[in-house]
Amino acid sequence: MNNYLIPANTKSGKLILGIFKPFDLILLGTGVLITLTFLMTFPVSSNWQVIIIVLPGLISAFLVIPIPNYHNILTIIIEAYTFFTNRRRYIWKGWCVKDVKDVQNNK
What we know:
Blueprint: H1 22-41, H2 47-63, H3 73-85, H4 102-105
Helix pairs in contact: 1-2
């Protein structure tokens, strides 16, 4: 029958509350702290001022939202940045590298 029991998310045990890395909580806490400081410091008289004051908390919360197949939005942004800024020419070093004659010319 070959029934195997594979945990759905084996890394969730290493995360805080099964969702957050320590950096995620620091980022979220910093954004919320900045928002609370702005709320206590600046007078709020219109809707656009409220939006600007609450923006640090909203941005930090948006970055740490967990999503499937990635850890969170911040992880997607970092992965996209490294993909677009790193080298795009991949050198073949597979098990049959000696069978390919082009490898010697590419060095």
